[in-house]
Amino acid sequence: MAQKFSRTRTPSGLPALALGVMLGSAGTMTATPAFAVDAECAAAPEPVISLNYGSRYTDDDDTRSTLDVDSNEVVNAALRPVDDFIRDLVARSNGVLNESDPTSASGAADCVLAQIATWARAEALSDLDSFTARLSMGARIGAIAEAYRQVRPLITDLKAVADVDQWLIQRAQEQLEFWEKEATSGARTGNLRAWAALALLNIGEVTNTDTFVWWASASAVRILCTAREDGSLPQETKRGSYGLHYQFHALSPLVTIAARLDRAGLPMTTSCNNALPRVVEYAFNDFEQEGALTQEYSGARQSYFDGTETLEDHELAFLGAYVSLFPNSPLVDRAQKTENLSNSKLGGDQRLLWQ
């Protein structure tokens, strides 16, 4: 039986950090639109129970950096109902946190709970028929758990709470077993392991399951300890033209885990010779050099600079958590100037969550 991990919570279920001035007013955000709190609660969308899809990348590319256009479209289509549900759910949970009237907030929290409970009772995301589906599901399960965590202190339907807790614990256990028994050695030190770790942290905290919290901590440290002296993550920088992209992608869960564990009295910011600030600084330093550092490792011009993509605000949403850890970092200015520090898989508006 899993042990229990207890911690003191604020009335909102989220710790109060004095970052309002540092990050700017949450009211000025153009993040995921806050859900209007009202007396109505729409039915949850049809639960997605089974997922079965292959890789987004061509089979003959060991670096997993050459997209297969057709396969990518198949993966996106399969995940779209899940991701749409998450975006709406997180908008609702952020709306609860923004609501000043306790009665309205409690009603809106119960609405979030009801939507998750619909998926829980249907055993959503329980039938993952492909390795790739199991590999990529951590971020989605974690996002649902984070929306639940945000509203948990205000909800009143204890039967639904029990159903959701049981469902989340089962999904977390499946993820833990996948990463320990089935995932490849390379994947175990990559960004998807970090997203799975954040999922287990969210579930461990909201269900008070010590095992998941400790696994999340150990997983994050394991990944950070692979960092080279310059802060580059070998599992990410080898990814051809997407090397820097995936370095940034790993930062979102790693920084969030570190910030959450820090406030729980489990600091990891100095682990492995201060790996966390090194991996963050590497990403921004390389971006300023137009990906030249990662190009040395990968042999390819980086996607942010070859016309493939641009660095989006949601990729920088982790800065809300980062400046809570390092309030004197030069990245405070970058956080202030980034218009939209929001990422649905991190729980939405990071200024709201970390102010």
Automatic annotation (TrEMBL):
GO molecular function, one term: lyase activity
Span of the signal peptide: 1-36
A Pfam family annotated for this UniProt entry: Alginate_lyase
One GO cellular component term noted in the UniProt record for this chain: periplasmic space
Keywords recorded for this protein, A-Z: Lyase, Signal
Transmembrane as UniProt keyword: no
Ranges of residues in domain Alginate lyase: 161-285
Domain of life: Bacteria
Name of the protein: Poly(Beta-D-mannuronate) lyase
